[in-house]
User: What shape does this take?
Amino acid sequence: MRNPGFGEANWGALAGAVVGAIGGLFAIGIGPAIASRNVALLFGTPILALICWVVSGLLGWVLGGQVGPRLGEKFDSQKVEIAGGIIAGLVPVVLIAYWGWSMMGK
Assistant: This one.
């Protein structure tokens, strides 16, 4: 079984970084925007969104780089490696969106 190095470049890492970065940019504002039905709240905290963008992109790279190659080797498919990277890249996005949603009530 292939054990990719920490931060190694591969297709899963690339897919995870792309999904994590794009999702992280909007994740913090999704909860308030849905609750208030105001799309402008997606961009209500630009500095925090930029921080979430960087953190999600880096975490997506690391998680996607670990999960993607393992799944790709198991199923012997590069497409599965990319799909594993995408799913792993969604993990930080979902966590940040949950954090943003939970901060609305306080």
In short: The mean pLDDT is 94.
